[in-house]
Write a structure and sequence with these properties.
Elements lengths: L19 E5 L2 H4 L12 H6 L21 H10 L4 E5 L2 H4 L9 H16 L3 E7 L5 H5 L7 H17 L5 E6 L1 H11 L9 H25 L6 E6 L3 E4 L4 H22 L4 H6 L13 H5 L5 E5 L3 E6 L26 E3 L15 H14 L5 E6 L7 E4 L2 E4 L2 H19 L4 E7 L18 E3 L6 E3 L1 H12 L5
Parallel strand pairs: 1-2, 1-13, 2-3, 3-4, 4-5, 5-7, 6-8, 7-10, 10-13
Antiparallel strand pairs: 8-9, 11-12, 14-15
Length: 478
Amino acid sequence: MTQGSDDYRDSGLQFPDSFVFGSATASYQVEGAVKEDGRMPSIWDTFSHTPGKVWNGDTGDVADDHYHRLDSDLDIMKQLGLHAYRFSIAWPRVIPNGRGAVNKPGADFYSRLVDGLLERDITPVATLYHWDLPQTLEDEGGWPNRDTAYAFADYAAAIGERIGDRVAVWTTLNEPWCSAYLGYASGAHAPGRTDGADALRAVHHLNLGHGLALQALRASVSNDDAQYSVTLNLHVIRPEGDTGIEAARQIDALGNRAFTYPMLKGEYPADLLEDTKDITDWSFVQPGDLETINQPIDILGVNYYSTNRVRLWDGRGERQHADGHKDVGASPWPGADRVEFLEQPGPYTEMGWNIEPSGLYDLLTSLRDEFPEQALMVTENGAAFADVVAHDESGLAVHDTERIDYLRRHITAVHRALQDGVDLRGYFVWSLMDNFEWGFGFSKRFGIVRVDYDTLERLPKDSAAWYAQLAESGRIPE
């Protein structure tokens, strides 16, 4: 391992000129305008309007109003010197009912977004699916329904035809683990269902949708230099005690290899099938599916926030569920009923997630070891803190020193991974702006730009200025 400070608080480290520093958002979290220009409801519209599902009854109806403030938000990105911007496309804005004709005003919004980025010399990185499934498709069964994967491919082809001449990087799915397990097993995320068998069906159909969408994009995108990717929230699992190794194996199968193996190897891990045989026989995997899923990708996107510590529950006392996800009663880990997620040492972010930059280093190097030919990109990393607005001589300010420290330490981990031979192409801070944080509503602020939810005014935090220095120089600021 490349040597540096034990606490990962390094400064002055220089990144290659080709390394990309960007930021990211997701459509439902920032856009608002949920009933405008032909957009129809997504599962998150339905879920957030269901009493008790989201903190404080918050919804994405307005969110950051990015739909109406596109140009000024693009100007902020330019001021920050972002090399790239990772955004997601709202499927129900482009094809409102999930299938059928393209909604021109919706597609035009993303065309304006891409053009605005290019005019400001910012590379567009487009994600097809960041969790806002059209509600009509959920009414037909959602991701547990095989037909959803084919509808997703048709949507990919339609948007690829319209902006595929200008987008540099296409990402099929963001964090399918969350879509499958939080959406259909634990019910913490939309659509809020709690059925382990449906969750595993969703795993497969998300994987299948990924492969079908890659085929559709390659057939419809006219930019010969476009790159193709998927983004996974792979779990860094720390075993605890004598039973930790077995617990970690089970969680690795469900949380990581359920996606990396079919996507990158063309197979499901045998231990995953064995662990879940009492839940499903996996007969929904049809001949040819794994070949379809196993499409070559240019970049594997990696989202990282924290680690997990696990062991097998001994049946005594109350079983711990500190897996970092909102606990609404049901488990997001079908087939892993004996695994216990232990509370981890601090410090923590406002989400209650432990801060461990070594976990990011370990994740990147382990992927290098397992998939040595696969280029990687950190597509999300960041932290929520209790930001305070200060009234300085120059006006309002947010002195978010904790977030700067978090970013410094994790970007140091990224640099060490690069030094140790990881083919890593870029880093995207989550998030550009404070936004609707899913089940937590507006109670958690991840942005490097503050949003006043009463006035919707934007205020770059100190972390934005720090990150702008990094993007401009390619060097971790002193």
